[in-house]
Specification:
- Two copies of one chain form a homodimer.
- Chain A is α/β, with parallel strands linked by helices.
- Helices cover 40% and strands 17% of the residues of chain A.
- In chain A, the strands form three sheets. The first copy, chain A, has a six-stranded parallel sheet with strand order 2-1-3-4-5-11, with helices on both faces. In chain A, strands 7-6-8-9 form a four-stranded parallel sheet, with helices on both faces. A two-stranded antiparallel ribbon of chain A has the order 10-12.
- The N and C termini of chain A lie far apart (63 Å).
- The mean pLDDT of chain A is 91.
- The interface between A and B is large, with 51 and 51 residues.
- β2 of chain A pairs antiparallel with β2 of chain B.
- Chain A binds a DNA duplex through α2 and α4.
Chain lengths: 331, 331
DNA sequence: CTGAAAGCGCTAACAT
DNA sequence: ATGTTAGCGCTTTCAG
């Protein structure tokens, strides 16, 4: 269809090699040649064929951002969206493009892991199948894990200080004077859940606060589910005066349930979320939450990946993003 | 690095061609051969090189979803996220991967349009530079426009019945008994703005409602801006009792401003949004809004693109997604 | 500064 | 059913 390098070579009277150079390293080509090459290229509507180039160069300048199926839909996930954006930005700086995929693209129907497209590197977001990662590495494709750790040698990961965040959230509630603090936990990956639960429990222990299993509940992490479940919790006798919700979406659901029940937030019930995602500022009153800087998270993940791709020495293999308390209107 | 088809051919004693066939059309290869090929492949950790394949096949099984820079960040945009998800799903069905990019990836620093990667087709979401589209088509790459029309021959597009939607919104407000209805319009593309404004105006005209320029305002389409602007509007004398906001994010900002001003929604001020995005169900009270089925929008766009890629006859070149009123709690 | 030529890894006729 | 072979379009030594 399109013109090839040969067409422009013929048209301008130089060889393929010179045409190629004119595009790749113009400084090694005479002015005269450049002029004629560019003119011919323009006239023929020539554009270098990146896939041919990739074949010889052995790299594609593509990276993939892969979401484990269980986390799908991810783009709708207010937590991952800004990290993907940051990744895209880092990629753009280096002239890389990003593919976005689910684990489907990595697994063959027969269960084998298949690298459907050639990627120079891959970022796995969220809970991820070990096989997929191992397979990729077996193909010498650099991998960085985001928000999930796998027990693989030299695997680089960037995760979050979940424990610390949970401690900040719970402590804040305690410092606001709450003695009975409940937990509304979303069923994310075990790693995340466990760390956040531990953080919460440790604060209760530190301050000798009561641990009431009726008020430590697991739910599917959707706003609807949070709303439904929380509406019931609100009717229980001796319910806590405050709840730590393990993400903003859940917290928003809780706030909605409280508001609908005619309660005042935070006067009648205090809530703190987690992530500082966009939903924390959408709900009114706005959520007090634990901030994770998703942009730096994405940026660092991308930087690590590019370091790997360029075979640079990595300073650290496990990076943990710190969290911080953002006090708004629900506490 | 990785093993090539030759390595496995040597190892299993068959030719390259047979190995290739074993992967592409297993039914044309003897059981014995398949067995040995797969064994050798497994042992060598062989995986077909997709870029070599793409070079000979002249197609990559990749499509791109491109967002015009002005719409960035798009993934955060609650309207496009579900559209993209639908596109990804359609692509996955056909074993295609999707590339996500901003107009940066399409434009060279010098302003030329450069097709950085070879894509079998491209979906442009939102306001888009004509040059980019023309250049793509010059390279014979199928394009479908999403939510934006360009005056190019045979350009296929899928857009929204913006006018109809605005009429539905405004009419609903009128039917709720409102006589003074304001407009809080986000500065999207001219096409969208104009259609929605016209829809609004036509309803005012139909019912002989007053047109007050003080209450027909343009803003940047962010929640913060909506909040700020709306807070001021609320203080103006003789303000409308209802507002049509041209998207849910703006509507949410308006609701927040009203709530903060101590107003009851909808008793003191009614609001209707547009899009039926996730934010319409995040804010409390939940937004009455105009629904656009983003999933079908994405699906149709993808289907049109694949039809183009497969050189099928298209039934329609301009598809408009209908809108519908969703009454919730703000009216 | 420019050209010739050897691949990059794979597919798809065309033979056998 | 399997093998041979000619590219796909480009980059990159290596010569000149």
């Amino acid at each position: 269809m399109g013109a090839t390098i040969i067409d422009v070579a013929n048209k301008c009277g130089y060889s393929k090699a010179t045409v190629s150079r004119a595009f790749i390293s113009p400084e090694t080509v005479s002015e005269a040649a450049k002029e004629r090459v560019y003119a011919a290229a323009k006239e023929l509507n020539y554009t270098p064929n990146t896939i041919a180039r990739a074949l010889v160069r052995q790299h594609t300048e593509n990276i993939a951002f892969i979401i484990h199926e269980k986390q799908y839909p991810t783009l709708l996930n207010p937590f991952y969206a800004p990290v993907l954006e940051a990744v895209m930005q880092e990629a753009a700086k280096r002239n890389y493009s990003v593919f976005i995929a689910t684990s489907n693209d990595v697994q063959l129907p027969n269960g084998d892991v298949y690298i459907k497209k050639h990627m120079d590197g891959v970022i796995f977001a969220g809970q991820t199948d070990v096989n997929a990662v191992e397979e990729l590495r077996r193909q010498n494709i650099p991998v960085v894990m985001l928000n999930h750790e796998l027990d693989l040698k030299n695997l680089v990961s960037v995760t979050v200080e979940h424990f610390q965040g949970a401690v900040q959230a719970t402590t804040h509630l305690y410092e606001c004077g709450h003695k009975k603090i409940g937990l509304l936990a979303g069923r994310f990956s075990d790693q995340v859940c466990e760390a956040r639960l531990n953080g919460y429990m440790s604060v209760l222990a530190t301050h000798d606060l009561p641990v009431d299993p009726r008020f430590i509940v697991d739910i599917e992490p959707t706003m609807e589910e949070a709303e439904t479940v929380f509406a019931k919790i609100l009717q229980l006798p001796d319910r806590p005066t405050a709840f730590f919700c393990t993400n903003d979406t859940i917290a928003a659901g809780a706030v909605k349930a409280a508001l609908r029940a005619g309660l005042r937030v935070p006067a009648d019930i205090a809530i703190v979320g987690f992530d500082d995602s966009i939903v924390s500022r959408t709900i009114e009153p706005e959520l007090t939450t634990i901030r994770i800087d998703a942009a730096v998270m994405g940026k660092i993940a991308a930087q690590q990946l590019f370091a790997l791709i360029n075979k640079e020495e990595l300073q650290m293999t496990h990076i943990k993003i710190p969290t911080s308390l953002v006090v708004r209107k629900t506490t």
